[in-house]
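As a warm-up, study this chain.
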Amino acid sequence: MNLPADHAPRLFARLWERAGEIGAVLYGIEALQVLRIEKGYLHIGTDTDGTTLPADVGMARGIERKTAAFVGRRSLSRPTALDPQRLQLVGLRPVDGRTFLHVGAHIAPHAPPAEIDGRVTSSCLSPALREPIALALLTRGSQRIGERVKVYHLGTEIQAQVVKTPFVDPEGRRVHG
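Now compare it with the structure written out below.
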């Protein structure tokens, strides 16, 4: 819908009058961020960087079947793109179910200084699960589901479990309800 800005307050008032009929509620950007993390939806530029490819975030399916040429096809066949050690987006849950996994925290085999296996890219306290959850870029992430990893933040080690996403509603019942 497109309308002049000075009509927006009136439209909002009319929509809000009927919101109760369909269970609509107001929400802010923080709620939207939590929902997207719970669903495992990535945020470009937060959960990705300039080296991230579609396969790294679970979006290669459509590209793999394309037969026609497209911009970027050659890049997907370069040695770096085919490296089995690539960082891949995964979910993380703290093993203790309560320790927050901070954005930017490193995933490494032992305390720093160490070569890192990945980093936490998004994190929140999930109201639906009542525990902290996070998204991370992790070396060979899709092959490490179920593995325990060590997450380091400001000198503190946190044990985390690598999990599949989405964290909430994996069947999509709420979205398609």
